Structures are given as C-alpha cells and as structure tokens.
Amino acid sequence: MITEYLRFRTTPSFSSDPSLFAKLREGARAAGIVNQSYGIGVEDKEVLHWIIQFDQGFGPKDFVWDEAKYGDFTKEVMKIAQEPPQSVFMHFDDDDKEPFSKEVTDAPVTELAAIELKEDLSKEEASKTLNDIRSILRKAKNGKGACWGADNDKPKNVYLFVGWESIEDHVAFTKTDSFKEVQGMMKNIISGVKMGHVAFSDHVQQ
C-alpha cells in the first residue's frame, strides 16, 4: 500500500471558503480514494497536512482525476495554497499491524517528525532502529500508536507519525527513561529532524 502525504501553506481562502478544500477531497473520493485524513498544524496554523491512502487496490499511477467535474487539480489547489504542495509517496512496512496505523490519525493529536537519515546509514540498520523506536513509542503512556514510512523517491527522508491523547502527554513522555532510549537511538541514525503536531480529521463523504 502507498500513502501520499501532502503539505502546503494555506491562503486566507482556505478558512473563508471551506468548500474549496472540500471539493478537492470529494474529487479524490470520486477517483477511488476511500481513506484520507487532514489537519492544520498546531504550532503553525497556516500549514495544512493531508494524508491520502492508496489502499483500494490501485496506485498513484492509476489515479484518474475527474477534471470535468472537479476542475484542474493544480489550479484548484492553488486557490487555497500559497505555493505548490510538497508531496511525498511512502510505503509503510509493518509486520504486526496495518501498514499505516489508522489509530495514529484517529488520536486527538498526532506528532509528525520529518527525519533525515545519515547518508552512510544502511537501509537494514535504519529499518531495524526505526522499528525498535516504533515499538517503544507504541508502549508510551497515553500514546495512540506509531508508524513510519520512507520517501519512495528519497529513501533517506523518513516520516514518523505518533498518536497522543494530548500534547501534554507527549511532553510528559519526553521526561521518561523510554524517551532517553529513543533519543539515543535517534542520534545514531539521523542527521536532522523537524517536528510538529497536527489534529487530524477524516474526510466524510457528503
């Protein structure tokens, strides 16, 4: 299964006319996308985060947008975006759960970390360490699941999603020994990281 993650800085039209983004979500649904989640950043309230799941037996190359009904996708997006969206396609690999843990975006708040892996790090070492980190995060008090995926085009770019009951619960976790363990493992594999929180909602078909 492939997951697309889009983010972009919104224009005032995004808030003043909710129908503009609703039209884009409905167009994706009409093209066969059943599961999509979206939310505004907690720390940066101008940035929209949009997750699209290709989990219905077809991939991005098979995606057909109905331009006659929903307009040119790029032009419609630019009605609510200050710049073209950043788009990443990822595979989420997990042996014991669904590839993208839905509980993560169902949580009241989702921690999203954009990670740059060290250039000399092997794929095997990165996967093992990230899986170990994921296991610890899934056991965190008031945590609501964790999953990670690598950019299909730039595999050194990894995205970690962690669900929490609240930002306060995330902060409380950073004071635990488990977090120190995660920190130690992270230092061994990353060259940079950007983090934030998002309160996601699911698209509901009208």
UniProtKB/TrEMBL annotation:
Q: Which InterPro entries match?
A: Dimeric_a/b-barrel (IPR011008)
Q: What's this protein's name?
A: ABM domain-containing protein
**What is the scientific name of the source organism?**
Dendrothele bispora (strain CBS 962.96)
